[in-house]
Amino acid sequence: MTYQSRIESLKSRHSRIDKKISSEGGRPRPDERVLMCLKLQKLRLKEEIERLST
């Protein structure tokens, strides 16, 4: 897998997690543990994308 395809894959996962965060946050009583876990995953993906992009 090339760097560019890896980055695109990570961006796709990042986008899916962002949608899950929005969905969970839009619930009447969002699960804070789930949100925290999703946000941490999103942050890790962002960091890896930035690392590979430099």
TrEMBL record:
Biased composition (Basic and acidic residues): 18-29
Tree of life domain: Bacteria
Chain positions covered by the region annotation Disordered: 1-29
InterPro entries tied to this protein: DUF465, DUF465_sf
Protein's name in the database: DUF465 domain-containing protein
Organism: Acetobacter orleanensis
